[in-house]
Design brief:
Helices cover 76% and strands 0% of the residues. With 25 residues, the chain is mostly helical. The chain is rod-shaped, with a radius of gyration of 11 Å.
């Protein structure tokens, strides 16, 4: 679906942050 909720955006941002943290290690 094209419509995203704020929660979806927060979950996506959190996933991106987690991936970056793993890459930095």
């Amino acid at each position: 679906m094209a419509i995203e909720t704020i929660e979806d955006k927060m979950n996506f941002a959190s996933a991106m942050n987690d991936e970056q943290a793993l890459n930095e290690d």
